[in-house]
Amino acid sequence: MRNLLLNICYDGSRYHGWQIQQNAVSVQQVFQEALFRVIGEKPDIKGCSRTDSFVHARQYCISLKTEHSIPCERLVGALNHFLPEDIAVLNCREVSPDFHARYSCKGKEYIYQIWNNPVRDPFLNHRALHYWYSLDEAHLNEAAGFFVGTHDFTSFCTMDARERGNMERTVTKAEVKREGDLVTFTVAADGFLYNMVRIMVGTLLRVAQGKLEPEDVKRIIEAKSRTEAGPTAPPCGLFLNRVFYEDVK
Predict the structure, then answer these.
(1) Domains, the chain, with CATH or none
(2) Does the reported pTM lie above 0.85?
(3) What SS3 state is found at 38?
(4) Does the structure show a pLDDT above 80 at 57?
(5) Which of 48, 148, 189, 206, CA to CA, is 20 to 30 A from 174?
């Protein structure tokens, strides 16, 4: 039995997230269908994360076990032949039997893109939030700095039917930068709560609007109340950018 690690990327504009849905098309469903056409098997596929509907991934990691002998390089080419143009397999390699795409993950990095110009950019449609009011990226970067560290991020989580667990996460990087009219929020952590990055962005936009000061982010974290933070930003600008593992063999 071989354990394979595949890196893929995808434009999530027409998918309802990674995980298979009963009445909607997901990335996992499309990937499984392509895999079956290549190896004639339906192995238990492990994804590194649940990405929300219409969220993109520049790197998404999948592990699966198979007895099929197809070489990794041939598997990449064959899968890309059957996958639609908005999903691509970047590479594949064999890993140790105990490797798990989700549970072996040590951290992830997300980016959120904002097109900050009065005129929309058609080429960034579904790939960036169009925000036409003025943004001071230095002011937002100051606010983002308060996310760094180990905190209870209850204020930055959408509470749904899922059982509430440990809400503490360690953020190692949170910064806002501008390149021309494209403003990008980058955040890395050992894990993320449901809608955490999108609520962070919504809170930063409240800072941009003058409704909050940068230091208010600290107060919002300490409040441990979703009502204290800003709204949930739309999914269109969010990308899973990198996935981190240690000693993958």
Answers:
(1) 2-103 (3.30.70.580), 107-244 (3.30.70.660)
(2) yes
(3) helix
(4) yes
(5) 48
d(CA 53, CA 49): 13
Q: Which of 11, 52, 136, 216 is catalytic?
A: 52
Which residues are annotated binding-site positions for substrate? Answer: 110
Separation CA 135–CA 178 (nearest Å):
10
d(CA 234, CA 195): 10
Tokens representing 177 are 């930068």
105 pLDDT tier (thresholds 50, 70, 90) = very high
pLDDT tens for 115-174 read 999 999 999 999 999 999 999 999 999 999 999 999 999 999 998 655 578 899 999 999
User: Which residues in 156-168 are b (16+ Cβ under 10 Å) and which e?
Assistant: bbeeeeeeeeebe
In angstroms, rounded to a whole number, what is the distance separating the alpha carbons of residues 63 and 37? 18
- Does the annotation count 52 as an active-site position? yes
pLDDT at 50: 86
Binding site, residues? 110
One-character DSSP codes across 96-124: -TT--TTTTEEEEEEEEEEE-SSS--GGG
Is pLDDT of 248 > 70? Answer: no
Q: Which of 246, 248, 245, 235 is nearest to 108 (CA)?
A: 245
Up-side HSE of residue 27: CA atoms within 13 Å toward CB? Answer: 30
- Planar angle of CA 120, 25, 95, nearest 5 degrees: 100
218, HSE (Cβ side, Cα atoms, 13 Å): 7
